[in-house]
Design brief:
The structure holds 2 protein chains of 2 kinds. By secondary structure, chain A is α+β, with helices and mostly antiparallel strands. In chain A, 26% of the residues lie in helices and 22% in strands. In chain A, strand 5 and strand 6 form a beta hairpin. In chain A, helix 2 packs antiparallel against helix 3 and helix 4 packs parallel to helix 7. Chain A is globular, with a radius of gyration of 24 Å. By secondary structure, chain B is α+β, with helices and mostly antiparallel strands. Chain B has 15 helices and 16 strands. Chain B has a 5-stranded mixed β-sheet. In chain B, strands 2-4-7-6 form a 4-stranded antiparallel β-sheet. In chain B, helix 8 links the parallel strand 9 and strand 10. In chain B, helix 4 runs antiparallel to helix 5. Chain B starts with 8 loop residues before the first helix and ends with a helix. The chains are: A alpha+beta, B alpha+beta. Strand 5 of chain A pairs antiparallel with strand 5 of chain B, so a sheet runs across the interface. Bound molecules: protoporphyrin IX containing FE and iron/sulfur cluster (4 copies). Protoporphyrin IX containing FE (HEM) sits at the interface of chains A and B.
Chain lengths: 358, 421
């Protein structure tokens, strides 16, 4: 490339959102009084001034091609007011001033194949990570798992039949991007990394790989006279943390990389303090292109929750009330030695009382 | 198109079913886009992805790519199977910072789409889990061109690597009756104070700001941010007793008892015989539950402020951590208040930059050195709101007790004087 003058970046940082916000929202900023939920996918917010704004929420494929993005824009111009936002679960929200536009907007979105819903007591869009499409360490795909699952859960996205909202998340490695969820489907490796010794010397900074291991299972070694690393397989917890800094530590395996399901992660402070998700099922095959086994487990949990939880109980609230033995009974999932934690602080997770539901 | 299209029998399975299909979207780019570069790229991308599906393995590796003047913001992706799939062999992701609250106009989205199909793959996500707009798939050279173009009309890269990352905030004051803060201003005051640390990774590891307008914490800040700012209030919940009565008429008294009164975590609510609601606000922990259920009848008080928690993160390395309360309550009314918040962030990042180990998140450092050492490092006094309960272990040396007790009484005197003055 001809070396022309390089352009100095403008370090403008995070842009001001007010320039894109709907005028009714600017006018009533901080002055909202209450909201109603007339039907799934639709919210009506009313301000102290008496103004109101309608929101229509729709799920998309998240990995948007420019055709789909333009389609969403075209619908926004024709049927809404040209102001949109995205939720943290990658749904698009159209804000409109005039109630009369709500139904035509819904019709246009559905006509174009988008899915209106995701509000209140629905199963929200599954939040997902990158996967095989564009990450360098994934054990599975992300967009594909989510597409296949949402196909099956779509009626619960479009309706609000759950006791409270359900947030599902996925993660395509064991340690990184995936968040806490009412239900989380995460990669779980079951074998230590296989080391490609020929490559370690060239590509890996050995001390930082050694430092990355949570259980100090990695030590420097020599193989065929070349510096490399070795893993104490008795210590290794198969987490894959050594793989990002050292790709020759092959943790991903077509057979032994599995999926695990966790439940009860809840970010909100409502009713109880935020909670982390807990392991409930593992050994689920990583089975592209549609991962039917993982979806089956998720549906089983959702069914028990829908039938047994009380109004307003999130999955964690529900289990707090009924107890873990009943959870395993209702869902039919096995309770194993792997459910008992042995990581630091785990003593706090043991039952030191006679509180037992007999 | 003259070139052969890859067969994608497995991916084709993901075109079935009612949810919108990203595979169909990539195929549209392959078959219908009028730029041959994009057709070819989409074709090879599908080929590589199909190969991943068949072998259950990923084929991207990292590398180093950045734009002129910055050290981060790009996630480099080079294909390990470029021989078979040459046209998508460089497939970098640009992380671009969205506006606080994720607002756009359709005009702006179209302008971004125009730039992106000029230089990139035509695939984009609003937004990744880190909060960025992710423009997925550009060559090393076009990464620079695309950035130059959108940077000219107001967009900047987010963080990647050991640096301050793109922040996130909820919709908040723009459309939510529960909001007790100006999330947008907090978000931008914080992250835009650290633009240099966003663009030039030089910290022990990543550092994330997230802002929620109330304790519902819609952006998961306690669980996912090193620095969580959450709106709250310290006066009384506003009760509209007429709305309480109409709620009871609608839903029934038992519903209110079962779903509001008995669900309060501190049992500070009671339903009087005349169907009016009584709240012992002194013991309300601002959990939000009753306000979520009775949206019209109950609203947060008017004396707004924020709670700050530090140290949340996901699994790597020592396990998941939630943030810990560092500031139980602070007002955010004046410019000086905002400056105090930014200073707290600066103190935190400075101390962590100095004392954190390589690849150690702020919360992990706090765990390693203990909360008290951290507080002393950033000049914040201890407060009983920071703990669930005082220590249970007697294994501690306490010969500084008298001075510490004196400090506490001194502070109480000062607080009283400040409140009076
Ligand atoms: C190999 C290097 C890595 C790359 C290229 C990478 C890339 C990314 C990307 C692109 C996202 C957004 C994902 C999406 O929503 O699609 C993300 C999110 C995230 N990553 Fe990474 N990641 C890497 C390593 C890590 C590591 C080692 C950790 C943890 C210690 C980590 C923790 C996270 C977390 C927690 C999120 C979600 C953040 C949030 O909630 O804001 N990542 N990462
Ligand atoms: S969860 Fe892991 S594998 Fe998946 S995108 Fe994040 S870093 Fe990559
Ligand atoms: S997989 Fe995890 S536990 Fe095993 S060697 Fe690698 S970092 Fe250590
Ligand atoms: S965190 Fe609170 S203020 Fe923000 S959107 Fe959620 S409920 Fe509203
Ligand atoms: S906000 Fe929570 S703690 Fe406060 S009164 Fe309502 S239910 Fe009780």
């Amino acid at each position: 490339m001809a070396r022309k003058e390089m352009r100095t970046p403008i370090e403008s940082g995070c842009p001001d959102g007010f320039q894109y916000m709907h005028p009714v929202m600017i006018k009533n900023f901080g002055q909202w009084k209450y909201h109603e939920h007339p039907k799934p996918g639709v919210l009506r917010h009313v301000a102290h001034s008496g103004d109101e704004i309608w929101t229509v929420k729709a799920g998309t494929q998240r990995i948007l091609d420019v055709f789909s993005l333009r389609k969403l824009c075209e619908i926004g111009d024709k049927y809404a007011d040209g102001h949109v936002r995205f939720t943290i679960r990658s749904n698009i929200e159209y804000m409109i001033k005039d109630e009369a536009k709500v139904q035509p907007l819904i019709d246009a979105l559905e006509e174009a194949g988008f899915v209106v819903g995701g509000t209140a007591n629905s199963v929200a869009m599954i939040s997902h990570t990158q996967g095989w499409l564009h990450c360098d360490i994934p054990g599975t795909d992300a967009s594909g798992v989510v597409k296949a699952m949402m196909d099956e859960l779509i009626e619960d996205f479009k309706n609000c039949r759950m006791p409270n909202r359900v947030h599902i998340t996925t993660s395509c490695c064991q340690i990184n991007c995936g968040g806490q969820g009412d239900i989380a489907i995460n990669v779980q490796h079951t074998k230590p990394p296989k080391i490609n010794h020929d490559l370690v010397a060239n590509v890996c900074e050995r001390p930082s790989v050694v430092a990355r291991c949570p259980v100090a299972a990695i030590r420097p070694a020599q193989v065929n006279g070349k510096p490399t690393l070795e893993v104490d397989e008795k210590k290794c917890i198969c987490c894959g943390a050594c793989y990002p800094p050292c790709p020759p530590m092959q943790i991903n395996d077509p057979e032994h990389t599995k999926l695990a399901v966790w439940v009860g992660g809840n970010h909100s402070n409502a009713r109880s303090k935020p909670s982390f998700q807990k392991l409930v099922a593992a050994g689920i095959p990583n089975n592209p292109p549609r991962w039917p086994e993982a979806t089956a487990v998720v549906k089983q949990i959702l069914k028990s929750y829908e039938q047994d939880a009380k109004d307003w109980e999130r999955v964690n609230d529900w289990i707090d009330r009924i107890g873990w033995p009943r959870f395993f009974e209702l869902t039919g999932l096995p309770f194993t030695k792997y459910h008992i934690d042995n990581w630091r602080g785990s003593r706090k997770s043991l039952n030191a009382s006679t509180y037992i539901r007999l | 198109m003259t070139k052969k299209m890859h067969d994608t029998p497995m991916l084709d399975e993901l075109e079935k079913g009612p949810w919108p299909s990203f595979i169909s979207g990539i195929k549209r780019l392959r078959d219908q886009h009028d730029d041959e570069r994009i057709n070819g790229l989409a074709n090879d991308l599908l080929g590589q992805l199909e190969h991943s599906y068949e072998t259950r393995k990923g084929y991207w590796k990292g590398g180093t790519v950045s734009v002129y003047g910055y050290g981060g913001g790009i996630i480099p992706r080079f294909s390990e199977v470029a021989k078979q799939f040459p046209e998508s062999k460089e497939f970098h992701t640009l992380r671009v910072q969205p506006p606080a609250g994720n607002f756009y106009t359709t005009d702006m989205l179209r302008q971004l789409a125009d730039s992106w199909e000029k230089w990139g793959s035509g695939l984009v996500t609003f937004h990744g889990q880190t909060g960025n707009i992710m423009f997925i798939g550009a060559t090393t050279e076009n990464t620079q061109h695309f950035f130059d173009e959108i940077n000219d009309y107001g967009w900047d890269l987010g963080g990647a690597g050991p640096c301050v990352r793109t922040a996130m905030s909820c919709v908040g004051s723009a459309r939510c009756e529960q909001s007790c803060a100006n999330e947008h201003k907090i978000h931008r005051s914080l992250v835009n104070n650290f633009t240099d640390d966003v663009h030039r990774p030089a910290l022990p590891y990543k550092f994330k700001f997230k802002v929620s307008g109330c304790p519902n914490d819609c952006v998961n800040s306690i669980e996912r941010a090193d620095f969580a700012v959450i709106g709250t209030w310290r006066d009384e919940i506003k009760v509209d007793q007429a709305e309480v009565k109409s709620f009871i008429e609608n839903k029934g008294r038992q519903y209110v008892i079962d779903n509001v009164i008995t669900r309060c975590p501190t049992n500070c609510m009671s339903l009087r015989d005349d169907d009016s609601l009584e709240i012992d606000d002194r013991n309300c922990v601002k959990c939000m539950h009753c306000l979520n259920v009775m949206v019209k009848a109950l609203s947060p008080g008017d004396d707004h402020g924020v709670t700050v928690l530090l140290g949340g993160k996901r699994t790597l390395k020592i396990g998941d951590l939630m943030g810990t309360v560092i500031v139980p309550f602070m007002k955010l009314d004046t410019e000086e208040d905002y400056e105090r918040l930014v200073e707290l962030a600066e103190e935190t990042i400075d101390f962590w930059a100095e004392n954190g180990l390589e690849h150690e998140r702020c919360g992990e450092m706090i765990e390693r050195i203990g909360l008290v050492n951290f507080l002393e490092g950033i000049g914040v006094e201890v407060d009983p709101n920071m703990v669930l309960h005082p220590r249970e272990s007697s294994y501690v040396r306490m010969d500084g007790w008298d001075e510490e007790a004196e400090k506490w009484f001194q502070r109480k005197v000062e607080e009283k004087a400040a409140a009076a003055g």
